[in-house]
Amino acid sequence: MKIVCLLASPRGKGNSTTIARRFLDKVKISDVEVRTFSLNKLNYRGCQACMTCKNKLDRCVLKDDLSEVLEAVRSTDILVIASPVYWYDISAQLKTFIDRTYSYLVPDYLTNPNPSRLKPGKKLVFILAQGGDETLYADIYPRYKKIFQWLGFTDDILIRACGVREVDDVQSRKDLLTLADKVAEHVLSGSNK
Q1: In the predicted structure, residue 191 carries a pLDDT above the cut 70
Q2: How far is 121 from 53, CA to CA, in rounded Å?
Q3: 49-52: long-range contacts (C-beta < 8 A, 24 or more apart)?
Q4: Can you list the domains of the chain with their CATH numbers?
Q5: Which of 19, 94, 120, 176 has a CA positioned 20 to 30 A from the CA of residue 169?
Q6: Is the pTM of this model over 0.90?
Q7: What would the pLDDT profile of 133-176 be if each residue is shown by its tens digit?
Q8: Which value, in Å, is the radius of gyration of the alpha carbons in the chain?
């Protein structure tokens, strides 16, 4: 089993990163290969709308630090994404990655019953950490869930940490740390929901 984790916070010890690392600590067993990328440490550009991935190549034409990340996601079984909520949305680091996943879609993706170039059946664990309560920003995950469904992710789980504003707030939230453990166990068990 392969797991790729994308840490999208500029804070190395932020709340979303802490939850993701707790999840990864739980899944690190002998037959699991884990690769973690801290997006804020990489040098990459956003999608250039050049359409080369639809007209000439089956992947993004840009050659930068995100190339390795896109290839790792292509071959992973489970993708873990961890982002803080900044200005009503995911971090810019993660949004730029997601824009580049446009290259995973086949040229006729709008009419093709199999729009993705990715192997179907991948799992997604989406971690969001926000300072506000649960009534705020509830629209974020459904938007991105739809994108990942298009890309062939058939099983997805949200870990949403609300009310964690300060860098280490999640450390005192046993409910969130326990949830990360349970999600890891669920993913490893191979069950669907």
Answers
A1: no
A2: 22
A3: none
A4: 2-189 (3.40.50.360)
A5: 94
A6: yes
A7: 999 999 999 999 999 999 999 999 999 999 999 988 999 999 99
A8: 16
